[in-house]
Amino acid sequence: MDQVPRERLHHGPGDGWVQCACGQRHWGLVGAAGLLVVRRRAGAPPAVLLQHRAAWSDRGSTWAVPGGALQPGETAVDGALREAHEEAGVAPESVGIRSEHVLAHPDWSYTTVIADELVHVEAVVTDAESIELRWVPADEVPALPLHPAFADAWPTLLARISDGAA
Ligand SMILES: [Zn+2]
Fold it and tell me: What is the CATH number of the domain that holds 34?
């Protein structure tokens, strides 16, 4: 693992590793959450805003939605919006929350908050956790090296995005 920027090591009381009964360890003492922003344009397939994660991060160099550890007392929606703002410059008021999808492990959970782009969201890197932010057409997502938790959730997320009823 590469050098972790010092300020990320103890960023908040929710930051830390959980040794989960599934046999893996996960980032986020009270769970984690991410924001899946969906862009819908006439005549084009839906696209989603993905983050190419820094090499030093959990399962580094993979792609996933911007997100991270929840802080105690924070809802998944609040945490996902905060992380997306910190990591990807997504203004909370620029998206509309549609639904939440929870990936539940024995000792940990990851909530993907699905949101629609309401006003133009620029894909920009705003902190050291990102290598790149990119709008990816939904049908091209599986071709990327995905974070395992995001890869597990993707078929369900795609179904929710595709039927428009998310
Ligand atoms: Zn687990």
Answer: 3.90.79.10
